[in-house]
Design brief:
Number of helices: 21
Distance between the termini: 45 Å
Shape: globular
């Protein structure tokens, strides 16, 4: 029997699923990096980014809205109304999928040739278009299960989707290579894997839907649940959904929109900074390497953002403000303690990580800068979701629009001077602005405390961790690159830097009294087990 997942359990499920999906996504790019030229890599990356952006448009932020609406209805004992909302969302997903798939297919030649100026991307974009027939519906189903606080359904569907997408996409790409086709058709074959992934994900969601149906029937027979008959008009449902989801789509599309903007306007905005050949190499490094690796640090934040909405919404609906404050503070602490060091370690070890995963280390600076910016991307995404849970989606939407304006101005000003680096800096400024505005809005509702007066110690721990990680990575890499195969040397330097930085980070959090014994009770079980033995290192005054 399915059971509701707690915040921590639901987050872990989604985080593991997202990590598996991200690793599989990188696995897809690694062999393709060897069989495609830079133009093919740029084409595949542009197709994926354009597709993901349109997918967010197609779903309209509705999954997040469904999650909140369903969780609220069940908290108020209106299960029948929640089911009615689900049916309306599925209908919208089916219609939106047909429309957006057609739009993506027919706009592909114009977009790739005239707007982005990467004409080889046309077939890759067209090959990925049929996936939009399925994914809007899948997204609606995931939103419903999240609203029921059952994250395993979405997590498993995501894993199956990625396995099929990678295996069949890479397999088709190598088949096309064996036939003697070039980058345009290799990229198209790899893109087609998303369609097969969609079929697998839909099958998983249908299976979980039937399982949930049987569970609900058992709850009704036991008298613990009642599905009242609901004739709530679809028009009223759509009005509520779109009122809530329009602000959400603006915020949900931010990261993909920034990636798409940088890929689409790199040539136009950078002017004479790059030659045509160099622009292809830079776009390939950005899309195939940097975007892939920079997607790893935010994984936990993505999972938290999905699992926190129904939890906070349920507490907020019954005005349990103490629980809202506790959960909001817990989320921010988890993000600070885990997401930030993950991004930092990957940034300082960017050269070894890039050399380990990909064919060469070209573009390592792009990887490092984009990964560093995810520190603020993480805080932006988490604070957005907390505000969704408050039922105030227009606040993060307005903050996002301000951040996007900053991004546009910064990119136009910096791209001619710094190329892609200027555009990435513009994205980082966007994340910072949104985060600051969001946190100010959250504190006007509940007194969220992340670290209180411990920020000085925390920043010192982060700086020291980064320095140790960079030093270990550089030293090990320098010693081993001439003594053994490069891939093996990069592996050792990554492992050494990650292990050393991780140990230093955890120990310094205790020594600098950022984490104290009194804090452990609010930590998830795994973190309590990690920190409890280290408490002997804390100053005597901190141990009490």
């Amino acid at each position: 029997m399915l059971k509701k997942d707690s915040l921590i359990k639901g987050t872990i499920i989604l985080a593991v699923a997202a990590l598996v999906a991200r690793v599989l996504g990188i696995f897809q790019r690694v062999p393709l990096d060897y069989v495609m030229g830079s133009a093919g890599g740029a084409a595949l990356g542009l197709a994926n980014q354009f597709y993901l952006w349109l997918l967010i448009i197609a779903t309209g932020g509705i999954p997040s809205a469904i999650s909140r609406m369903v969780s609220e209805r069940h908290a108020l004992g209106k299960a029948g109304e929640a089911q009615r909302i689900y049916k309306a969302a599925l209908l919208f997903g089916a219609v939106a999928g047909v429309i957006m798939a057609a739009v993506l297919y027919f706009i592909a030649p114009w977009y790739s040739t005239h707007l982005s100026r990467f004409p080889l991307a046309d077939k890759a974009i067209q090959a990925i278009a049929p996936a939009l027939l399925l994914f809007p519906t899948i997204a609606m189903m995931r939103g419903y299960f999240q609203g029921r606080q059952m994250m395993a359904a979405g997590g498993m569907s995501q894993i199956v989707e990625q396995i099929l997408r990678v295996l069949l996409g890479v397999g088709l790409a190598f088949l096309v290579v064996s036939w003697g086709y070039g980058d345009r058709w290799i990229a198209a074959a790899a893109s087609a894997g998303s369609v097969f992934g969609g079929v697998g994900a839909l099958a998983v969601m249908i299976w979980y839907g039937r399982k949930l149906g049987r569970m609900d029937a058992a709850e009704v027979r036991a008298g613990r649940m009642r599905f009242e008959k609901s004739n709530l008009p679809f028009r009223s449902i759509y009005k509520e959904i779109f009122t809530m989801s329009l602000p959400i789509v603006v915020t949900a599309m931010t990261v993909n929109l920034l990636y798409l903007f940088d890929s689409s306007f790199l040539v136009r905005l950078s002017g004479d900074f790059y030659t045509a050949l160099l622009a292809d190499k830079v776009a390939d490094a950005f899309s195939m390497k940097a975007v892939s690796l920079a997607g790893i640090p935010p994984i936990l934040a993505i999972a938290l953002s999905s699992s926190i909405i129904p939890v906070i919404s349920s507490a907020f609906a019954v005005r349990n403000m103490n629980e809202v404050t506790r959960q909001s503070s817990l989320i921010m602490r988890i993000v600070v303690f885990t997401g930030v060091p993950a991004a930092l370690i990957m940034t300082v070890a960017a050269e070894s990580l890039t050399g380990l995963v990909f064919e060469n280390v070209y573009g390592v600076g792009i990887v490092a800068l984009l990964t560093a910016g995810t520190i603020f991307q993480i805080s932006m995404m988490t604070s957005n979701s907390i505000l969704y849970g408050f039922g105030t989606p227009r606040i993060p939407m307005n903050n996002t629009l301000i951040g996007l304006a900053v991004k546009l101005v910064a990119s136009v000003a910096l791209a001619p001077l710094l190329g892609i680096y200027g555009m990435i800096l513009g994205s980082t400024l966007c994340y910072i602005v949104i985060t600051v505005l969001n946190l100010r809005a959250i504190r006007q509702v509940v007194p969220v405390r992340t670290l209180g007066g411990k920020w000085v110690g925390y920043i010192a721990a982060v700086i020291a961790t980064g320095a140790v990680g960079f030093g270990i990575d550089y030293g090990v890499r320098t010693l081993l690159l001439d003594a053994m195969p490069h891939k093996l040397a990069y592996l050792f330097s990554c492992c050494a830097a990650g292990a050393a930085a991780g140990i230093v980070y955890v120990v310094l959090l205790v020594l600098l009294r950022v984490v104290q014994p009194s804090d452990l009770s609010s930590f998830p079980g795994p973190l309590r087990k990690l920190f409890r033995p280290l408490m002997r290192l804390a100053p005597a005054s901190a141990r009490g």
